[in-house]
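Record type: monomer structure entry
Structure origin: computed from sequence
Chain ID: A
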Amino acid sequence: MRIHLTSVFVDDQDKALRFYTEVLGFVKKTEVPLGEDRWLTVVSPEDPDGTELLLEPSGHPAVKPYKAALVEDGIPAASFAVEDVAAEFKRLRELGVTFTQEPLEMGPVTTAVFDDTCGNLIQIAQSK
């Protein structure tokens, strides 16, 4: 068994697609119209057949309070692996990304947390 798909709730799919592709560097994998919204996924260019991230609309009534509670408590909605947190932190900060946690070593991992501009905190992590 392996993870095939996971999702992050986004306030605006177009804005999310721009951020996740143009800033983070993911590539669009699937886009299927579903009424007002779309089944919209991105993948890592390093693993185009790997786990897909669904940019899921935040329309369900439970989503807004859920996302707000996570952000208020500083809890990331997702974590992405990177080879060098310090380098990725610098690259993203130069692109205007707002970080809520600068790189922090925590035992066997180094992490940083940023705002994805779509209502979520996202963690980047590097294993030692």
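Annotation 1: DSSP finds three helices and eight strands in the chain.
Annotation 2: Residues 33 and 39 are 6 Å apart (CA to CA).
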